Amino acid sequence: MDFNPVRQTLQDAIEHLYLTFQHYRLKTTIYACPYCVSDGDHAKLHTKPLRKLTDNDLEKYAFKALTTWGDADDFRHFLPRLFELEVLHPQRIVGLSDPEILFGKLAYADWHTWDIAEQRGIHAYFEALWSYVVLTHEPTPWTYSDDYLCGIGRAVQTVTPFLLQWQSFLTRTAMENLQRFLEQNENDIMQRGALKNSFWDKNSQQMQEVVVWVLNPRTVATFEAAFEAHIDTSIADTLANIIDKFHTLKRYA
Fold first, then answer.
1. Helix, strand and coil percent figures for the chain, each rounded to 5
2. pLDDT for 83-129, tens place per residue?
3. Whole-angstrom Cα distance, residue 205 to residue 50?
4. Nearest alpha carbon to residue 159 among 130, 192, 117, 128
5. How much is the CA Rg of the chain, to the nearest whole Å?
6. Three-state SS for 57?
7. 32 bridge partner residues
């Protein structure tokens, strides 16, 4: 298999999560709503070492964590494996859980109050994850970039660094992902000044940051400069389409 530095950076970030959260041990009993979580569900969490737990073992926990199953320390125990399973299994159409749901759990856990090393580890993971998604995932009707931007946006205090990172990735896959993202969201931006993904809080600062970035004249100017610099390359047509989308959105929003 060819070495992929973007994937390796993500794997390194995940390994760092394991090291950072290793002192959070699995409890013998994890409190849960007795009407929501069965004995069999509990048993799945205790039958294997953390790194051996599968999507099937953790799927229900990932959905119910912190709302009806376990507390923040329990979530921190499972976090490295949950975040690993979310992205590193290419045979799945989607990861362990919707990234919007899984990463949104961090807000429930009030993770911005955690130890600074834990916060840094999660930020490093998100940065590596975003590069991996935008640069390596081919856009599909169920585009990954939209899901993961929303998921990250539900966790972090600002998405602007991720948007600036995206516009710096002048590769075919990154630009095709951006074109697909604009196509998916153009009607909602024009009609509601919002994004299509229903997991966004319509009043959230993070969603508004994305809309403002799309409509900002400086954003389209950046892509126009990129088009001039890459006019004879394979990404020129995609850049031209992106620029057209930006101008259309600006005109009708």
1. 65, 0, 35
2. 999 886 544 444 466 899 999 999 999 999 999 999 999 999 999 99
3. 35
4. 130
5. 20
6. helix
7. 69
